[in-house]
Amino acid sequence: MSDVSNSGPNLDPNLVTADEGQPSEHAGHFVEIKNLRKSFHDLVVLDQLNLDIAKGEILSLIGSSGSGKSTLLRCIAQLEVPDAGVIAIDGEVQGLIEKKGKLYQAPKKVIRAQQAEVGMVFQNFNLFPHMTALENIIEAPIHVRGLSPDEAKRVAMEWLSIVGLADNKDSYPIELSGGMQQRVAIARAFAMDPKLILFDEPTSALDPELVGEVLDVIEKSTKSGVTAVIATHEIAFAHEISTHIAFLSGGAITEYGTPEQVIDNPQEERTREFLRRITARNDSASKKN
Ligand SMILES: Nc1ncnc2c1ncn2[C@@H]1O[C@H](COP(=O)(O)OP(=O)(O)OP(=O)(O)O)[C@@H](O)[C@H]1O
Ligand SMILES: [Mg+2]
After folding, report:
1. Smaller CB count within 10 Å for the chain: N or C?
2. What are the CA-CA distances from residue 26 to residues 5, 18, 179, 244 (Å)?
3. pLDDT tens-digit readout, 92-121
C-alpha cells in the first residue's frame, strides 16, 4: 500500500478518463477506478488503469488470457489489495479511509461491509459442498445482512425461481450439473442484493452444452437494473447483453465503448488482433462440436 497515501482522497471525476470519448450519460460514475496498479512480485499486471462504470451499466471485460481481467475483478471485490490507486463504488472509496488528507488501509470491519455490497460469481462456482442449494443462498443474507431465516428463504426462493431451479432447492451441489451449480451461485450472489455484481468467466468451466443455460440466466438476472462487470471470452454473448465493452491490454483499458464500437468497429490494432484470434478459435471450436 506504499503509494496509496499519495493518491489523494479526492476523486475528481474529470481525472478518471478511461475513454475521453465517453458519452455524457457516463457522468454518473457509479464505479470509479483511478490509476490502479497491481503487481505480483516483479510482474506488473495492472498499471495506471482507469475505468468508470455508470449505474446500470453491463460492462464486459475482454482481453487475452493473463491480461489481468480476474486481477481487476478481484481488486474491485477486495480479494486483492492494490499497490496503488483508488477504487470507489457509489462514492465510497474501497478498502481505504481518509485521515488528514491521506489514505490508509480501512479496518477489517469496514472492508467486510463493503465486500457485502459486491457480489462475485466465480468460474468454479465455489458453492459450499455440505449445504443444499437453498442453504448456500440463505447463508450470507442471514449472517452478513441480518435477514430473518424466513425472509432469507423468501428471497432465495425468488432467485431460485428466476434461475429455474426452485425444484432443486434441497439438492446438494454434487447432485447438480455444472450449469445448475453456476445458476445456484448466480442466485446466491443476487440474493445479497449487491450494488455491483462481478462475473469472472462464469461459463469457462462448463461443458459446451451447459454454457447456453448459464448465459441465459445471466442475461435474465442482469435485466434487474444491477450494475455488472463480466470477464468473458464469449464475445457474441458480450455483444448481445452488454451496454459497454472494455478491452484490457498491457495492464490498462486500451479501448472502451459500446459493443458496436469495440467489437464491430475496433479502433485499436491490439483490439482487432485479439478479436481476430478469438473469433478464429471460437470458429474452430464450433466446428468440432
Ligand atoms: N496470486 C497471484 N500470484 C502471482 N501471480 C498471479 C496471481 N494472480 C494472477 N497472477 C498473474 O497475473 C497475471 C494476470 O492474471 P489474471 O488471472 O488476472 O489474468 P486473466 O486476464 O484473468 O486471464 P484468464 O483469461 O486466463 O483468466 C497472470 O500472469 C497471472 O499468472
Ligand atoms: Mg481470469
Report:
1. C
2. 27, 11, 34, 11
3. 999 999 889 888 899 999 999 999 999 999
Distance 232 CA to ligand 1 centre (A): 14
Q: Is 107:187 a contact under the CB 8 Å cutoff?
A: no
List CB contacts of 152: < 8 A, sequence separation 6 or more. Answer: 137, 138, 141, 142, 145, 191
- The pick from 37, 39, 40, 124 for probing ligand 1's pocket by mutation, whose C-beta has the most ligand atoms within 8 angstroms, reads 40
Give the closest residue (by CA) to ligand 1 atom 13: 66
CA angle 104, 111, 116 (to 5 degrees): 155
The mean pLDDT value of the chain amounts to 88
- Which residue is associated with the grid cell 488482433? 273
Q: Model-level pTM?
A: 0.88
Pairwise CA distance, residues 254 & 243, whole Å: 17
Q: How far is the CA of 173 from the centre of ligand 2 (A)?
A: 23
- Between CA 245 and CA 264 the distance in angstroms is 11
Any residues with Cβ below 6 Å from ligand 1, and which? 40, 43, 45, 63, 65-71, 201
The residue contributing the CA closest to ligand 1 atom 31 is: 66
Nearest to 40 by CA among 233, 251, 270: 251
Q: Which residue stretches of the chain are H helix? A: 69-76, 108-115, 133-143, 149-162, 178-191, 208-222, 235-241, 259, 269-288
Over the stretch 15-46, which tens digit does the pLDDT of each residue have?
333 333 333 344 558 999 999 999 999 999 99
State which residues of the chain have pLDDT below 70: 1-28, 285-289
Query: Which residues, 6 or more positions from 148, have their beta carbon under 8 angstroms from its beta carbon?
Result: 142
